[in-house]
Amino acid sequence: MNINKHFSTIALGLTSVCAIANAQESKRPNIIYVFPDQMRNHAMQVWNEEGFREHVNFKADPVRTPVLSRFARESVVLTSAHSNCPLSSPHRGMMLTGMFPDGSGVSLNCHSGRPVSSLRIDAVTISDVLSQNGYDCAYIGKLHVDYPTKNNPQRPGTYVDDNNPVWDAYTPPEKRHGFRYWYSYGTFDVHKEPHYWDTDGNRHEIKEWSPKHEADKAIEYLTKERDPEKPFYLVVSMNPPHSPYQSINDVMEEDYNLYKDIPLNELLIRPNVRAELARKQKSAPYYFASVTGVDREFGRILDAVKKLGLEENTIVVFTSDHGETMASQVIDPKNSPYTESMNVPFMIRYPAKLRPHVNDLLLGTPDIMPTLLSLTGLKEKIPTSVQGNDLTSFLKEKSCKRKAPKGVLYIQNIDGEKDAEGKVQSYFPVARGIKTHRYTMAITIDQQKQVKEVLLFDDKKDPYQLQSLDVEKYPKLFKKLTKQMSGLLQKADDPWYREKILSDLIQYK
Ligand code: CA
Known about the structure:
alpha/beta; Alkaline Phosphatase, subunit A; 4-stranded antiparallel β-sheet; globular
């Protein structure tokens, strides 16, 4: 700390000190972080528009997202943001802590049969740091980072959902990590009958499409509920376009009407759509209707920000926890290294500091927390536990690309050992890989920790990943990618690095 500044501050007297502290705090930017669940990067019409389509080598889905198109023109738009472990809970753990799943504690999707996976109470989250530094923090929507326990505040000793106790959870105040305002649930997939627990633990049953309701709550927070003396960090975690996406009960009719008469082969235009996934293909009109609805509700939040005069000094992020294959490649919508699963939208608008442009920065989930903290001016407060990188300098149009990340780590875990009750006590690190600007590589192992499968795609020549390359024919490339991956595994303190898994193939230090 600057000694002169320290002395002059003392000389000003107590009232003035407080006034200065408040003025400095009020200068810090607000953050609004909106992330619908399971929205792939390709599901934005902006990628078919001039100024944007030149930056990607895929055709955008035929989806209507006019708000995101406008927002893109005001933002830094990343082509290559990836969810490292493209699954709900692990992503959320990484986003909140800046640590990979092994560090955050959230290694698998949170579920009452998996006590091994739950956000560590002692992990320092972005909301912990921001609240300790003068921010008012608010969480609205799906959380899905806690091990569901029998802690129903209305009926203690029971799960919050008798019919489906495995997934949903209530988050008591001691597990809220600095979030003061609370309107959230664990995970629950009835889009038109959502429920939430508020700050005081009261349950609210709602008969309305959840993104619409959550946008209303976000606007209510911005206009009435927040502490006007403080900068704020508002997270809005929408569940759609996550499944179910099968009927008019899942979406808004006005959105469905845009897609209902379009033949499926005109909706699913990617050449890697699988004919045998015909049943899944029928979800396409509902999936795109969900995306259009999310676009509109995001627009309502942006309108409120503008009306309140908060635009200039508010960082707004739009992203998703992972993508959706939607009948491309495999039946699983996520949790795979395919581009539809890993590549997510990432747009960041900060009029005071960031010039809008399209940027090919490789951003991974653990980078989000340190980057946002740095953008608010709290670079020095980034916890030492953070494993991601502060990428703020690369969000500038003419940044030094040479120093930018060259790859992001891909992680897939599955259930490990179970106890006598069948509860999962450990996780098995079944696949690891790397995504670079040009290649996608992933190695899956069997229970003996030997190679089971290697996927290797040249995403430049084969953007739809139609043909995995034979690694034996590309030994130099494979060696280069595994070497790069070993560096990332080391930085992540990953079990593959700690146990030196496949040390005959991977050059560990
Ligand atoms: Ca998810």
